[in-house]
Amino acid sequence: MVNETIIQTTQQTTGQQIMTIPPSFIIGGIIFIVCTFLLIGFLLYLRHKYPKKSRLDPVMNSIFLSMFIISILILCELVGVLPPDWNKEHWYIHLGIILFFMGYNLWISIRLRAMPFDKQLDIAWSQIWENYREEPNRGNKFGVPLILYKLIERPSHTTIPNALGTFLLFTNSFKTILFQLNVYTGAVVHLKPDPSVAIINELVGKPAASEFSAFLQDFKHYSDAEKGDENEEVAT
């Protein structure tokens, strides 16, 4: 009997609370929640299907994150977790959510700027010297220090873009070295001496692999010519 009384009292209280919510808020809240989740679902679909073309700018990213949090607050009021008119009375919390996400995303976008090419190249040669004690090819020797460079963008599951600066470098001892780093964080992704054409094709693409293959052929002709000159000098 006591349990039935408690249940009836709870039902009456919940019913009274729902009835005190204005119909306009109920209709508007439901529309807002449905639209928010449809937009989020659509954006997730685009990000999955077109990872390189579906990036949002900081402002749009902030708006959608804010809409998601605010829709949760509206839903809590509709189901009785929050008291009636809570969202109306605490409108400044909605504003604070929007300003917080906008400020955070703008800070991330300003802080995370791609390193200039010269700085990327300095990091590459610094890592090569630390690991192999190799220096850039200089003087009258065959070739130039930089064989090729390519910026590769790959899907990222974090706020940090996965943009990779890829270098193929030529040292003073005629060694080719593949170096790859994240241009936003400076983190080294690949460091490999004397990479094969197949590896270049896999990491950088077929055009770069073809260019590297042509470079190797030119270097082979140069080496053969150098050896021929040395043999002639020895013979004389």
What does this structure look like?
This protein has 236 residues and is α+β, with helices and mostly antiparallel strands. It has 2 domains: 2-111, no CATH class; 117-235, no CATH class. The chain is built from 8 helices and 4 strands, in the order H-H-H-H-H-H-E-E-E-E-H-H. A 4-stranded antiparallel sheet has the order 1-2-3-4, with helices on both faces.
Write the layout of secondary structure elements.
Elements lengths: L1 H18 L3 H27 L8 H21 L7 H4 L1 H21 L5 H16 L13 E9 L7 E9 L5 E7 L5 E6 L3 H7 L2 H30 L1
Antiparallel strand pairs: 1-2, 2-3, 3-4
Keywords, separated by commas or semicolons:
disordered N terminus; 236 residues; alpha+beta; single chain; elongated
Summarize this structure briefly:
This protein is of the alpha+beta class and 236 residues long. The chain contains 8 helices and 4 strands.
Overall SS class: alpha+beta
Number of domains: 2
Tally of separate helices? 8
What average pLDDT do the residues reach? Answer: 76
Oligomer: single chain
| Rg over C-alpha atoms, rounded to the nearest angstrom | 31 Å
For the largest beta sheet, what order do the strands appear in spatially? 1-2-3-4
Residues in β-strands, percent: 5-15%
Q: Determine the fraction of residues in helical runs and give it as a percent range.
A: 55-70%
Q: What is the element string, with H for helices and E for strands?
A: HHHHHHEEEEHH
Number of strands: 4
Largest sheet: 4 strands, antiparallel
Q: Which spans have pLDDT < 50 for at least 5 consecutive residues? A: 1-19
Shape: elongated
